[in-house]
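As a warm-up, study this chain.
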Amino acid sequence: MRQLTLFGEDSKYDVASPVRTSFSHDKVCNEDARLALEKKYENIFYVDNRFNRKIVSYQANKGEIVHGWIKYREGFSANLVEILMNEFGIQLGESVIDPFSGSSTVLLVAKTKGVNAVGIELLPVCHLAWDAKSRFYDYDLDELCNIKSIIEKIIPETTKNRFPHIKITETAFSDEVENDLMFFTAWVEKLSVSQKSKILLRLILTSILEEISYTRKDGQYLRWDYRSQKVINRNKTRKEQGKKSIKKVDKGELPAVKDAIVSAISIVISDIRALQKFRFQESTQELIKGNTLFVLPELESDQFSSVITSPPYCNRYDYTRTYALELAYLDIGNSIFDLRQSLLSSTVENRSKLDILRELYLKLDKEKEFDIILNVVTTNPAFVEIIEALHSRWERGDMNNKGVLRMVEQYFIELSFVYAELYRTCKTGAHVAFVNDNVRYGGEIIPIDLLSTNLAEQLGFEPVHVYVLPQRKGNSSQQMGKFGREALRKSITIWKKP
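Now compare it with the structure written out below.
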């Protein structure tokens, strides 16, 4: 393991060795295969001060031109993409792919660097974000300034239109806020402006939903302000049952809808004005709608010079719940369950996609490839050890949801197919970067980074680096309460197609 020192000897980062010496709390379960991975790859660990939790998350995009137009908390920063593109030596006209594109940070950075890019993403809110952000050269600033001026003078009228709530979003707004939101929604649709400006305004309206609501995104849940009727009703019931009120969340004073729109459009206009002063090299970017599991197998081979991505983490976070307001607003509410099932398996509710995937490979005359990939993951010693350990922990009563077992198993199976298809679609010499977190369930640590690296190597990639963030990640309070605190790695794994 090597320590990269970029900030001098007074660095405040914890630079303890990232190599683990145990994975199973109290050594209840076998951990030999996981320890063997630590030994196998210890020489490619790099604790790298270029990377921190801010730069590998959305936080570093706050306030960034264009990237900050909508908060996509599960994304990584433009700065991280630039660092990796420079490290990989990506040249003008080459192509990069992000198979879990999110808010399209990779595509936007590629656009400014004259690099071709393909993204794959399922969530509709992310496609709206790309539609709006990718047009920054095309907007008419005079038109946008005129729209802003009109909005500033508008007094919202009473409307009969109602927010298309689903059960999880009910009472997310005060009556006044919901009325004003739906007033401006209808107003935008009737506005006599260019279609691209309407798309931008739809993104702005979508981007302010959390800000004007009684909700706050927090991991796999929406947290609710104490003023929402949902919380008021729940606490009333709890009081009748002799229980304590739920923990109070106070978002403080919420902005009026019009104020939030004006603030957002002001930032957008400023960003567009700044960007339109520059001229970047011509390049093409495409965001494909769908699940990467089913999109990648149909893409042409040997076309990408690099991969920069971050898949959904194996942490039970359900994006259809986290972005329930945005999805409901975009009228996806009735199909939200189908959307949830279509996402990469990273929640306890996801069902297996293996039969559907098999059908696709049969259709593409790739049955042999399907069997090889499935065999690689299901016979991998660390994978087998982890699944057996989780079953043992469930039987001991150390886990509160058996769905975690299915989730972890499906997670690695599905990612193995992604790794195999990325190998096929990448050019010789291509570099691949995956950002991910290690996790812990029932006292068992799952080394996502090294198991993924091992699977990728079995599928043809050459392991290059495992960049480890100096700051480690903690566990859930439930895990710490029962098994104590364990600092887990957050890593950027780097592989190469030889």
